[in-house]
């Protein structure tokens, strides 16, 4: 280490005691290299001077550590205030969100209630329409049955009329055939008489 500040920074950033001990040992090693009189212990004066310098450096380091601790405390205080402020803001946001969620739930409940009423209303309307349609279908079926009955009667009447017309036509045809036969017979008889008369006339000559 080249300065007490660097030594302090290394010690404050060390993750555990083992690392801090190694840093201190390295610092003493650097100090011995830098101040060989400490290692040799040539005189008590050199040792005293070295001890005084070390005490001064340690005192300076302690003051710097104290200043750093104060700065850390100040930073920690500010951070705690900021954290508390953030917590308050989070609590406020959470409260607003809870109110909004509750409002949304109420609106969903109201909407669900209205939808259920509308669905029930639609079901009733469908039931009423279905009832009317069934009545209309039954009425149409009755009308169809009535029309079918009338048509059957009319068809039966037409069949009877056709049968009567057919009977009359057959009678007329039979009478016509008989008349034709009588006419033909009369014609043949007349021609026969004429032929006989003609033969008698020829024979008398």
Can you put this structure into words, describing what you see?
- The chain contains four helices and no strands.
- With 205 residues, it is mostly helical.
- Helix 1 (4-13) packs antiparallel against helix 2.
- Helices cover 95% and strands 0% of the residues.
What is the tally of beta strands? 0
Alpha-beta content class = mainly alpha
- Poorly predicted runs: none
Average the pLDDT over all residues and give the rounded result.
Answer: 80
SSE ordering:
HHHH
Percent in strands: under 5%
What form results from the Cα inertia axes? rod-shaped
Summarize the structure.
The chain has 205 residues and is an all-alpha fold. 95% of the residues lie in helices and 0% in strands.
Structural descriptors:
205 residues; 4 helices; rod-shaped
Secondary-structure blueprint of this entry?
Blueprint: H1 4-13, H2 17-34, H3 36-40, H4 44-204
Helix pairs in contact: 1-2
């Amino acid at each position: 280490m080249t300065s007490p500040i660097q030594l302090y920074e290394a010690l404050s950033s060390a993750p555990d005691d083992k690392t801090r001990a190694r840093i201190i040992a390295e610092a003493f090693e650097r100090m011995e290299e830098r101040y060989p009189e400490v290692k040799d212990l040539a005189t008590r004066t050199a040792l005293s001077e070295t001890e005084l310098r070390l005490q001064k450096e340690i005192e300076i380091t302690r003051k710097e550590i104290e200043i750093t601790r104060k700065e850390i405390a100040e930073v920690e205080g500010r951070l705690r205030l900021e954290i508390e402020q953030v917590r308050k803001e989070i609590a406020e946001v959470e409260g607003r969100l809870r109110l909004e969620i509750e409002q949304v739930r109420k609106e969903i409940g109201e909407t669900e209630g209205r939808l259920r009423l509308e669905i029930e209303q639609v079901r009733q309307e469908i039931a009423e329409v279905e009832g009317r349609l069934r009545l209309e279908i039954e009425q149409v079926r009755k009308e169809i049955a009535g029309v079918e009955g009338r048509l059957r009667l009319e068809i039966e009447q037409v069949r009877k009329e056709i049968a009567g017309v057919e009977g009359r036509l057959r009678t007329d045809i039979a009478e016509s055939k008989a008349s034709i036969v009588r006419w033909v017979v009369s014609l043949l008889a007349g021609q026969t008489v004429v032929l006989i008369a003609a033969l008698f006339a020829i024979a008398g000559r």
